[in-house]
Amino acid sequence: MIDVQDSSLNVILNSCLFFILILAVVSLIPWKLKFGKNRWALALPILAILAYLLYEFVMPNNWDIRLDLVLIWPALTLIIFLGVIRGVIIWRHVRKEAENTSHEKE
User: Fold this and answer.
1) Which residue from 8, 12, 18, 54 puts its CA 20 to 30 A from 71's CA?
2) What is the Cα–Cα distance from 24 to 43, expressed in whole angstroms?
3) pTM of the predicted model, to two decimals?
4) pLDDT value, residue 19
């Protein structure tokens, strides 16, 4: 747990850190994204980045050694990487459906 000697900042910092780690675990779940189901999973990278921005905004400037980043950066990298993969899968699926519909019209 992070302790910056201010209880309100501690709550925000620890909440953001745990939220990012939970998003990393949730992003590992292989959601089926076909037919519009579970497309909310594409919002995971955006939520993680917003939580990280809040985390950095609240973090005091006098902290020189940031061991918390050892957890945050790999988690953010994982979330963003898996979000890109999900986006590519959906894009390919939509493109394939568009090609099938255009061939059916001809």
Assistant:
1) 8
2) 12
3) 0.77
4) 93
